[in-house]
Write a structure and sequence with these properties.
By secondary structure, the protein is of the alpha+beta class. It is 49% helix and 16% strand. The chain contains 14 helices and 12 strands. The protein has a 6-stranded mixed beta barrel. Keywords: ATP-binding, Cell membrane, Membrane, Nucleotide-binding, Transmembrane, Transmembrane helix.
Length: 433
């Protein structure tokens, strides 16, 4: 019976090619627009570390003076001072912890190379950065805990920089000249680009990761400068480490809800101690967001992307409504044919199923054309100057969603016309014919 309905639907579509083309085009345009923006929204709002994000937390304490933003009701600053970062890190209350900031300088090419000096960004952090965030390595491994403690001149470089300097060969053990200082390369990253770049939302949120990674203590010993946000809230001394200036991000790994609650109590106790010592003017004002909460707090997904996604869905609704009107006109125009079939014994259920199959075939054609329009739309998004533009690619999950959405839209559009067509009284149609 299903094959018979398919043949009937196909013949009905061929009998009115212009109307069929209009319905397919309407659905395809709506599907293409909505899936383009939903794909962009899906890419930007995804979990950058599935399976681990619930165990990674961003601690915040409030060292601001009372004169700034009231007392206690405001959110603590997102950046830690050097003193607070060191104090929290060395208490060892978390399973893993890493403090970090971004630097920028020039890498000199190896001796004898024809390359020019390369401007790169760097991440100055601890070795736990790599294990906490499951950073993949192509060659070598992170530096050791002894390298962290001893401020060793070691570095991890990106796959991209390794390719530029050494042609992609295993460069572990070779020397890297960064900012006029020599570092022994201990590891080369494999491709790694978390989306968004969650660990530092103050710089490019959707950009590439840094090319050079150096131990935090080494960076402070060499006085490697900050290439990012610095928030000073008092009299500075010319030295960031002794000035009331926040410039350090910190992440901790807490493997259970109990550990997270204990760490938050630790932050409160630490703030109370600093308040009692006169260093913090405010009463304890702390936050401990997990990774996804941190992304939501910082509104990582641009509002214009959300707005465009809603507008695209609204446009799809308009297309579906137009398709409903076209299907209604098409089905009612075939009242005579439907009346004859009813008179010959076809049930309303059979007529309804046949018409829905016809609507489904329109949806399938609309899905294929909509898929092409989605690819075109994503290509247009990638031509935009936005930082996230290069990430706009159709993913397998969204490909399936496109096809399902098109089929669902066509079936929804066909429900009312098919139901109205089933109500046709065969006696009246035969009499009028």
């Amino acid at each position: 019976m299903g094959a018979y309905y398919l043949r009937l639907a196909l013949r009905a579509l061929r009998n009115s090619p212009v109307l069929t083309a209009l319905m397919v085009l309407a659905l395809a345009v709506g599907i293409g627009a909505s899936m383009t923006m939903l794909t962009v929204l899906h890419v930007l709002s995804g979990d950058p570390l599935p399976g681990r994000s619930a165990h990674l937390y961003y601690p915040q304490v409030d060292p601001l003076p009372l004169a700034r933003n009231g007392d206690g009701d405001s959110r603590p600053p997102s950046l830690l001072t050097y003193i607070d970062a060191e104090n929290l890190l060395h208490q060892g209350k978390a399973a893993r912890a890493a403090v970090m900031y971004q630097g920028a300088d020039v890498v000199q090419p190896p001796a004898g190379s024809v390359l020019h000096p390369i401007a790169v960004t760097s991440r100055l952090t601890g070795r736990d950065f790599f294990s906490m965030f499951e950073v993949p390595f192509r060659y070598g491994a992170p530096w050791s805990a002894a390298d962290d403690a001893g401020a060793a001149h070691v570095a991890v470089i990106s796959q991209s920089l390794d390719h530029k300097l050494f042609g992609g060969a295993d460069s572990v053990g070779r020397m890297l000249n960064y900012g006029g200082h020599s570092f022994r390369i201990v590891g080369v990253l494999a491709h790694w680009r978390p989306v968004p770049r969650f660990y530092d939302l103050n710089s490019s949120r959707y950009g590439e990761v840094e090319d050079v990674f150096i131990p935090f203590n080494t960076a402070r010993a060499l006085n490697i400068g900050v290439n990012g946000t610095t928030n000073c809230f008092g009299q500075t001394t010319g030295n960031l480490d002794t000035s009331p200036c926040g410039y350090i991000q910190m992440w901790v790994q807490l493997d259970s809800a109990h550990a997270a609650a204990a760490y938050k109590r630790f932050l409160v106790d630490y703030s109370a101690q600093q308040h009692a010592a006169g260093r913090f003017q405010r009463k304890p004002n702390v936050r401990l967001d997990d990774l996804m909460q941190w992304l939501a707090t910082n509104h990582v997904v641009p509002e214009d992307v959300r707005m465009q996604a809603w507008l695209a869905l609204g446009f799809l609704l308009v297309c579906v409504v137009n398709t409903v009107g076209l299907l209604l006109a098409k089905f009612l125009r075939r009242s005579g044919e439907i009346g004859v079939r009813r008179a010959l014994g076809a049930s309303r259920r059979a007529i309804f199923a046949q018409l829905l199959i016809e609507a489904g075939m329109i949806g399938a054609a609309g899905a294929l054309l909509g898929l092409l329009l989605t690819w075109l739309g994503l290509w247009l998004v990638r031509q935009q100057p936005s930082s996230y533009a290069s990430l706009a690619h159709l993913q397998p999950a969204m490909l399936v969603a496109t096809l399902l959405l098109a089929l669902l839209a066509s079936l929804v559009a066909g429900l009312l016309p098919a139901w109205r067509a089933c109500l046709i009284a065969p006696a009246l149609q035969l009499k009028s014919s």
